[in-house]
Design brief:
With 505 residues, the chain is of the alpha+beta class. The chain folds into three domains: 2-111, Immunoglobulin-like; 135-393, Spore Coat Polysaccharide Biosynthesis Protein SpsA, Chain A (Alpha-Beta Complex); 402-504, Immunoglobulins (Immunoglobulin-like). It has 13 helices and 22 strands. A hairpin with a 2-residue loop joins strand 6 (72-82) and strand 7. The longest helix has 20 residues, at 334-353. The radius of gyration is 24 Å and the shape is globular. The termini are far apart.
Length: 505
């Protein structure tokens, strides 16, 4: 187990995250956490254990109150049980306020880069020929910390993510401001093309004046509007630029056949790309050839609830699909990137004229609804836990991820209730790797397939390779097995029908 944490406090009332990084869990993990600091410097308000299965990440959250503007060294003492044995890790985390005004005299630079990187996983080593020539990474990073009263992350987080991306040794086009360019020494990477993107470039964008005119108090209060987006015009401009930036990268690419991968520079999902050679074969197996690959999650359907409503809560519901496209990862060839730029620009221009200022995710979602045949959409929340598995596309680019597959029943088969033990195996597996298994009804005597899949009726964790479920006759089932973190993306599905009752007599 490795343990590290975000070593900054962005405001007096701080939500502090402790991050636990696991390789492969041989069994359930139980954790207790105690944070220590001078009572004159910090007051714990509330602690909460968040076992969030986000690749190999598990988070412990604590709400803290910093009592003074100086640096605080927070000691976290983590006790955990793994495989029946008790372990303990202790780590010291320096925390400083990031607000340079309002009586909090510390500058953001009070936190040294060495403070942030101390305790983080070592710089990954990648094998020779780790990245094939047909992959070009595209990303962006800027220091916008002073745009927020309470910054979400220190700018070195984005710089660290960018540096880890470049260590993959892929061809890359990166859009960074001058500060981050100097910090990570991009000139040492011959495969990297650097485009400087500073604040004044964002303010000169053609849509910036219209965007500013719509950023009023009503707009900032919409439920879908994340606080960091509503607070900073520059940050909103940056995320809206993503399709334009990947099109610029397409024009710069040395080969039109290259696969452009937009990857946000936040490092939380990058570790699973560092362990083995990369490949786009998974994307192409889903039918990406000639189309744009994007991932989706269940967002819009929870906000647009009134049937046939043209608009609701600041969203043009009639123009949006039930899902929301996630802007942190998408893939396409150069030709598709130029097409996307054009159609995305048309959608955004039209929406702004109608008074709908949105993020890139909603504009991209509108494009996918208008041109469904142009996209391959992967639902990251279509799993028995129904969690938004953000790291799925990153993990599936790695060629050595454990891959589960069902050995029984075969997909499309009919089975007898007396002989219906689900069986599976895992390629590239480690011993005793943990999986979770889900089962749901697709169609039975009361509900036909037109009603769609219903809720997962069973979700179980196991290290076994077989499992029995209570099944009904004459029912179409779907079963799914997924490998537990850090390989959550690896999922296998089978669909089978149990025989009618008269077949047993």
């Amino acid at each position: 187990l490795k343990l590290y944490q975000e070593n900054v406090a962005s405001e007096a009332h701080r939500t502090h995250f402790l991050e636990i990084v696991c390789i492969a869990l041989p069994g359930p993990l139980s954790v207790s956490w105690r944070a220590e600091a001078s009572s004159q410097a910090i007051s714990p308000i509330e602690s909460e254990l968040m076992m969030l299965p986000r690749c190999s990440r598990f988070y412990l959250k604590q709400y803290l109150w910093l009592k003074n503007p100086g640096r605080v060294d927070l000691v976290s003492d983590v006790e955990y049980t793994l495989g029946g044995r008790a372990h303990q890790i202790k780590v010291t985390s320096p925390m400083v306020p990031l607000r340079p005004d309002g009586g909090w005299g510390s500058s953001p630079e009070t936190l040294r880069p060495s403070d942030y990187f101390d305790g983080n996983p070592a710089t990954p080593k990648v094998a020779q020929d780790h990245c094939p020539e047909e992959i070009t990474l595209v990303t962006a990073a800027m220091d916008l910390m002073d745009e927020w009263e309470a910054p979400q992350r220190h700018w070195t987080v984005y710089a660290d993510g960018l540096r880890r991306l470049l260590l993959l040794d892929c061809a890359a086009v990166v859009f960074v401001d001058s500060k981050i360019k100097d910090y990570i020494s991009l000139d040492v990477k011959s495969k990297v093309q650097v485009e400087v993107l500073d604040r004044e470039h964002l303010e000169d964008l053609s849509f910036f004046p219209r965007m500013q005119a719509l950023r009023n108090s009503s707009w900032k209060g919409f439920q879908w509007n994340w606080g960091k987006v509503s607070e900073s015009a520059l940050y909103l401009s940056l995320v809206l630029l993503k399709p334009y930036l990947i099109a610029r990268a397409a024009r710069m690419a040395k080969s039109r056949s290259t696969t452009l991968l937009w990857i946000d520079s936040v490092p939380s999902c990058l570790h699973c790309m560092e362990d083995s050679a990369l490949s786009t074969s998974w994307l192409h197996s889903l039918g990406m050839d000639g189309r744009i690959f994007a991932t989706i999650y269940r967002g819009t359907s929870t906000l647009c609830r009134r049937k046939n409503a043209d608009a609701e809560g600041g969203l043009p519901c009639k123009d949006l699909p039930a899902y929301t496209v996630k802007g942190s990862f998408f893939a396409m060839r150069a030709e598709q990137a130029l097409w996307l730029e054009r159609e995305y620009d048309n959608v955004m221009d039209e929406m702004l004229l109608r008074g709908f200022l949105l993020t890139e995710e909603y504009y991209l979602s509108a494009v996918t609804k208008r041109f469904p045949d142009k996209f391959v959409l992967y639902d990251r929340s279509n799993n028995p836990l129904e969690d938004d598995l953000e790291c799925i596309p990153h993990c599936m680019l790695a060629t050595k991820n454990p891959k589960p597959f069902f050995t029984f029943p075969p997909s499309g088969s009919q089975v007898h209730l007396d002989n219906c033990t689900l069986q599976w195996d895992v390629e590239n597996k480690e011993d005793d790797i943990l999986v979770f298994v889900g089962l749901r009804v697709l169609e039975d005597s009361l509900h036909d397939a037109d009603h769609g899949a219903r809720e997962w009726i069973e979700v179980r964790y196991t290290s076994a390779r077989h499992m029995n479920f209570q099944l009904n006759p004459n029912t179409l089932y779907e079963a799914q097995v997924s490998v537990y973190p850090p390989y959550f993306a690896s999922t296998a599905t089978t669909k089978f029908r149990t025989l009618p009752r008269e077949e047993y007599e």
